[in-house]
Hints:
The protein is mainly beta. It is built from one helix and 16 strands. The longest helix is centred in the C-terminal third of the chain and has 5 residues, at about 260-265. The chain is elongated, with a radius of gyration of 24 Å.
Amino acid sequence: MVQLLFTFALKAQQPEPLSRTTYLAMDLSVGGGVVENSYLTPLRYGGTRYGLHLVVESPLTKRHPLFLRLASDLTYLSSVNPSKSALLEQTRYVFQGEAHYIFSLPYSFKLSLGGGLRGLIGGNALPSNVNNTTSFDAKLDLVGSVQLAYMLPLQLFPATFRLYANYGVIGLAHHVGYNQSYFEVDSQDGGLARTLHFTHLGNASQSALLFSIDMPIANCCTLRIGYCLDWDRLYMERRASSVFTQGAFVGFSFDTLWFAGREAVQSKQHRPVLFSNVFITIEQPKLIRNIRV
Length: 293
């Protein structure tokens, strides 16, 4: 009789972890976007989007597979209506902070799961609308996120691939009614507090996808290229606003030492936070055969 037993094993953290480094990336992006803002216009506008992005991944503790992911994005979108007779300009700043837990998958893949807060502020300008020329955006979302990473096992070219995605769950958003004016909010009962509304999956949708490749160039620098996609929609009180953008980016990434006193400075072995020896390992299925005659 042949018995086939499949088991998954979880390995404990290794006792003496290597010093880990903080990952820092700075990028410039160019792409396209589509804007819908019923407060300013019933039409959809499309155009070119430019962005400046900063990403930081830093270890939270020395002996636990946890790291802090910070992201900061400043974008500008210049769009026109279908007849190209009017210009709508949008500027947005997004800051996001998340805590991630690292798992080691088979074939040297690294998976991190986490969540955090995503804050957004921005403005829209439509000079051709004489009644409402501007609108203001502000949101705070609770997001869940996942990241999958892989480093090529090549000594001369250890390129790193990252695939990151997040999705907003609940939050707060600044939102005025269909016939309300931004300039009259302060004079109304409750003031700005009346414009804050609870968001959830029924009236808001926010998601982002980012794919990047870090390619070391000799011993001088690490080039980072990739693709980003972002979707943000809000529908309240007969007003809809949405922004869909995508684009390619290019920049540089760095690994800086995590501050851990003399031990980190004198150590000759350091690892990026995602690829250190501090993680929980999920092994491949093991095939055990017991053969009885």
